[in-house]
Amino acid sequence: MSFKNVLAPALLSLILVFSFFACNREAEKPNMIMFLADDLSYEDLSCYEHPVVRTPHVDQMAKEGLSLTHMFTTTSMCAPSRSAMYTGLYPHRNGCHMNHGSVKEGIRSLPHYLEPLGYHVALVNKRHIKPLEAFPFDYLHKDSVEQYLSCLNNEPFCLIYASDEPHGPHSEGRIKGGDVQVPPTWVDSPEARHKYARYLNDVEKMDAEFGSLIDLLKDKDLYENAVTIFTSDHGYEYFAKWTCYETGLRVPFIIRWKNLEPGIQNHAMA
């Protein structure tokens, strides 16, 4: 059965991806890389037909991998979303259902499942999870990723790169307020267009950061055989984050792996 037809009805997490390999400890153990954007709504990528923003590195991965067009996060808040992703449990099960909240005592997370299989499990940059005892990652600054990978001696790893982009505060860049049309749920004003343009500039910064990570992995010959995922914790902060609107809960999700047919879109809810 093709992996692209096996979709969890609620949460497709790294734990479920790795359960395929856990059944046989002698099976191939591919490296896993996940790039996690911060406050990025589903529709704000050029591969999802946004008319203004340019995201060539994410677009290239979409051409090479499987895109889930109806992936939804468990909640449109940072800490609960990340805690659910790293534990494989909904917020009401793991205990973190408020922003800046904590999971309950005894909750297990990715390192607990993957380290017994021989994996190094690292979280780069943003944390926003607690208590840290429940999430025993190797915590890295983004400038130390190359050194970390160089020290692994070809042992398998799971690397989650948690970007700060396109989370605010936003910056000036190529896109100006006059270049954009605000989403239909917004009040259309010069201020709103300027705010939206600045956010889209940070989406482009995020894409460049993603491209730099992929280039590093390619330079170290760690990309072609890896399972690579691009996604977001939830949607954009304005009229999306903190809400149950679709722009808050629906996130991009692209997975690339040598055993997946490239350039496929799957429209099942996940």
Short description:
This protein has 270 residues and is an alpha/beta fold. The protein is built from eight helices and eight strands, in the order H-E-H-E-H-H-H-E-E-H-E-H-E-H-E-E.
Overview of this structure, please?
Helices cover 29% and strands 17% of the residues. It is an alpha/beta fold and 270 residues long. The protein starts with 13 loop residues before the first helix and ends with a strand.
Task: Summarize the helices and strands and which ones pair or pack.
Blueprint: H1 14-22, E1 32-37, H2 56-64, E2 66-72, H3 78-87, H4 91-94, H5 110-114, E3 120-125, E4 138-140, H6 145-150, E5 157-162, H7 190-219, E6 227-232, H8 246-249, E7 250-256, E8 264-269
State the main characteristics.
270 residues, disordered N terminus, globular
What is the 3D shape? globular
Q: How far do the termini sit from each other?
A: 18 Å
Percent strand: 15-25%
Total number of helices:
8
Strand segment tally: 8
Order of helices and strands: HEHEHHHEEHEHEHEE
Mean pLDDT: 90
**Rg calculated over all Cα atoms:** 18 Å
Strand order of the largest sheet: 4-3-5-1-6-7-2-8
Helical content stands at 25-40%
Largest sheet: 8 strands, mixed
The structural class is: alpha/beta
